[in-house]
Amino acid sequence: MASNKTRVSRTPGNRIVYLYTKKVGKAPKSACGVCPGRLRGIRAVRPKVLMRLSKTKKHVSRAYGGSLCGSAAL
């Protein structure tokens, strides 16, 4: 299982500390099964964050916008 990401930061008191960031999300793949890449125009976030996003950030305004890529939807 992948671990959470960390980054090094300097505080105003001149200490070096770790900041624990979240895991990196991935954009969904196309449902056509032919195109190798990920869907464009859709936020690449973790599933829990995806629930809180508005509908406009989870699809593109085209028929089959959130599941098929542009070339497969034509």
Essential attributes:
two-stranded antiparallel ribbon, single chain, 74 residues, alpha+beta, elongated
List the helices and strands and how they pair.
Blueprint: E1 6-10, E2 16-20, H1 47-52, H2 70-73
Antiparallel strand pairs: 1-2
Notes on the protein architecture:
A hairpin with a 5-residue loop joins strand 1 and strand 2 (16-20). The chain is elongated. With 74 residues, the protein is an alpha+beta fold. A two-stranded antiparallel ribbon has the order 1-2. The chain is 14% helix and 14% strand. The protein contains two helices and two strands, in the order E-E-H-H. It has a domain at 24-63. It has helices spanning 47-52, 70-73, and strands spanning 6-10, 16-20.
Summarize the structure.
Keywords: Ribonucleoprotein, Ribosomal protein. The chain has 74 residues and is α+β, with helices and mostly antiparallel strands. The chain is built from 2 helices and 2 strands, in the order ββαα.
**So what's the overall shape?**
elongated
Structure classification: alpha+beta
Radius of gyration: 17 Å
Distance between the termini: 38 Å
* Secondary structure: number of strands: 2
Q: What are the secondary-structure elements, in order, as H or E?
A: EEHH
* Order of strands across the main sheet: 1-2
Number of helices: 2
> Share of helix among residues?
10-25%
The percentage of residues in β strands lies in: 5-15%
Low-pLDDT residue spans? none
Mean pLDDT: 91
Describe the largest sheet: 2 strands, antiparallel
